[in-house]
Amino acid sequence: MQNLFRVLAISLMLLFFQIAALAKPISFNSASQIKGKIVGPISSGQVEDGNQITAYCLQVERTLSLNDPNSSCGPQEVDSLPILAEGVGQYKGQKVRMTVSIRCIESKLGGYAIERVHAIRTVR
Asked: Tell me, what's the pLDDT at 119?
């Protein structure tokens, strides 16, 4: 029985590393195309500190590997990104393909966010 648990644990670890290896890299010098589902709005941060932000988020289909060498956010693997651009509320609950600009928003989020939406369309 212990051997079965060991095999299962090793299998799960291998699966985790395979999924991380499939993470899609994103360019910070140009717009990137990503797919996912619009959710929210979600609030983050503290009102008292003046750092609260409320935004819709994109739950991405595949984990994104983000590492802007010109920012202080550092490397991050993300499954969801806040959308700071307006006008995405109408897509809430829908799967979309977006062309976006992503950047590090360290002061309010301590991580990456979609700063600008260049194009958006629903997908099945």
From this structure: 92
- What is the CATH T-level fold of the domain 25-122, as seen in this structure? OB fold (Dihydrolipoamide Acetyltransferase, E2P) (2.40.50)
pLDDT at 2: 58
Amino acid (1-letter code) at residue 97: R
Phi-psi region of 10 (alpha: psi -120 to 50; beta: other; left: phi over 0): alpha
How far apart CA 36 and CA 60 sit, in angstroms, is 4
Quick one: pLDDT at residue 121? 93
**Tokens, residue 120:** 């958006």
Question: Would you say 66 and 34 are in contact if contact means Cβ atoms under 8 Å apart?
Answer: no
In 12-29, which positions are buried (b, 16+ CB within 10 angstroms) versus exposed (e)? eeeeeeeeeeebeebebe
d(CA 117, CA 83): 8
Cis? peptide before 41, omega within 30° of 0: yes
Reported as a single tens digit per residue, the pLDDT across 77-99 is 999 999 988 889 999 999 999 99
